[in-house]
Amino acid sequence: MILGLALAGVLLAWHRTRLRNRQLYQQLHHPTNRLSNHERLRYDRSEQRFRALLESLPRVAVQGYDRKRRVIYWNAASTQLYGYMPDEVMGCRFEELIIPEGMRESVIRAHQSWINEGVEIPASEMELVHKSGRSVAVFSHHVMLGQHTNNPLMFCVDVDLSVQKQAHRDLEFIRRYDPLTLLPNRAAFIAELNRLIEDENRHRAPLAVLFIDIENFSEINDSLGYDQGNHLLTQVAERLSQNSYTSDLLARFGNDEFIMACTHLDSRRHALQLIDRVNSMFELPFLLDGKPHHVTVSQGISLFPDNGEDAESLIYAANVARNRARLPGESRFQIFSHEFHRDLIYQHELLKRLENAIDHQELALHYQPQISRSGRIESMEALLRWFPTGGGMVSPSEFIPLAERFGLMGRLGSWSIEALCCQQARWKAQGLHGYRVDINLSGEHLRSTAMLEQLEKTMQRHQLSMRDIGIEITENVLVQADEAVKHHLQTLYHRGMKIAIDDFGTGYSSLAYLKQFPVTSLKIDRTFVKDSPQSLQDRAILAGIVFIGHRLGLEVIAEGVETSEQLEMVQELNVDLVQGFYFFRSMRAERITPLLETQPLFRGQHGASPRE
């Protein structure tokens, strides 16, 4: 607006000067005129200065039109903006040059209303037409000179908005699209899904929302680097796009998450067909760093209107189903059920109770003895238990996975380390020496330098040695171990701490871990012990593990021994320690103390076998 007013002043001054110059010109060319050459030059220079001023205005296109809308002036910026040279447009009507066909009648009426009735044409943004036919975005300001004369002139001052419009389009793209995959982002998907739901409501047509999560994306990122991780995401986006219908909505929802909305899916059978379609997209490997890599995904589906009637509800339901699909032991795809929602509410309530339990002394350590071949208690495993204030007990199989999912393992680990060291120091103060107690540590614990420092400082504070405390880790920890975990295990090993692999034999490459990681003990998984008396295959596996463990100089522990037949089997195979209900269930510390004080012999079916 300021630019338009300034130019209006320039044009008005130019118009008045032209009138004076025209009078001067007429005088100069009158037969009786005897003015000097100096006055002739003054006229020419005045005209040139104003033309030069208009021509020099950067990116400002100025056009002049007479009463009949014919072009009388066209500066260089107008040529650059609209593509016409001045000699192409002089005398032509401007509506035939740069006004879109649909606007021409209204523009002509507005021009006539200004001349005849004094109704000004307001400044505004508009889309005009280039010589090539493409649209040109401008901000146009209009000035009428000599309105009440026989020769009114209208000047249009057009500022090119192409750069601003492109910047706006770029910002709009950034706002609505993911810059890596070029798919719509979360906000755009939600907006489009709500629009689609409105359409489906009108036509009473069903639709489904599918949440897709790349399960092993973090491992690929960590092992191959972020560039290859990004390359995987672009390949996944391309594969999903190529195999989607035109009516489907597809977006990148999060770091390694994609989401689709598909119409005409109104039943479980149709939903399963959609899942099969997506699964088929991931059967072929993705090429990363020049090598093929297979990718696994978890999928969750929600159906409209059964699981929600707006975008947020459907996305939430699909996400709940996806999270259910990621749980151990579940299928990699799930269709939303209200049971999932109830379970989720229960889990969040349980999570709050667990946080409260840590702070209000509801946790306890129980100890399960490990019996040597001589029949004596050699060592123990410390097991975390939760006894809510209201009574009863929450199973570790219920709250440990919950703590792992929601980041509470650090707090549970800190509590357990302090409680274990305190109890072991109490036993030593009572003269009960030589009984190692092993504590279970997760990958999160071993990855944390602070956690390992706490373990060492707590042991020092209670005057415990590395012979007093050992650790147990699962094969899963080793599968996911990074350099930090390897370093911390090496440190503990070289300082003399016992390190046992729990549930040995259940992983994909158990033997490989014995070479890669410093371990001192193998705990044979109870699944091999359970059927060993009847199953030749399990017996052979059991014998093989014991043989390999002993050849490597490792202590071998059989856990889950519950019957005399199982005990006889593992004793025949010369396992070093036996742990299981046949001897003892896990017990409170005060129940363990008398056993450590009296040291009775436990010889299985041939001797006493107190159980609890």
UniProtKB/TrEMBL annotation:
Q: Which PROSITE patterns match?
A: EAL, GGDEF, PAS
**Coiled-coil region(s):** none
Q: Where is the EAL domain?
A: 347-600
The record places domain GGDEF at 205-338
Q: List residues of the PAS domain.
A: 46-101
> Would you tell me the protein name for this molecule?
GGDEF domain-containing protein
